[in-house]
Amino acid sequence: MGSARGEGRRAEILRAALEVIAERGYRGTTLGAVAERVGLTQQGLLHYFPSKEALLVAVLEARDRWDPGASARSGEAWPLELLGSLVEYNAMRPGIVQTFAALLGESVTDGHPAREFFTRRYVQVRGSMAATLRGEFGDRLPGGLTPEEVAPLLVAVMDGLQYQWLLDPESVDMPTAFRAFTALLGGSTPE
Asked: What secondary structure does DSSP assign to 121-173, as a single string?
């Protein structure tokens, strides 16, 4: 098997795993279900990913690579306006947001295979958000807090809005609520 073919097969497995996790959650996902979706036996799937945990971590890493907002989490500063566009984009793909939210929620339990991934990811995200805030406001926001003090709040608003929107999309307008929060950061009221 050539490496290009192997990489293509791995990508196919990752997409199928993302779909199965979105449908069943991580705990309800089996290697057999993922293997069946891509026309492999469970043993064949284990050739590409030696365990369910390895597959999960690979899915999360691939999701960040596929996601256009990944650079917003890689330490790069994005203007707040572009973060607002990312929130709008996420509102158009509930399946991906639901999968991410479910895995994030599950990852807080002891021994969960995604815990290290999310812990590392949040360190990067907070750094990126601090850089974004510094680019917008300098060393102090209008309320007097530093970008490092506000970064965890910005991340909490983004993630919290996703959970609220997933639970009640008719009542929670994620992009509008996020714009209102960023207006508050700047010391103004939303338009």
From this structure: HHHHHHHHHHHHHHHHHTTS-TTS--HHHHHHHHHHHHHHHHHHHHH-TTT--
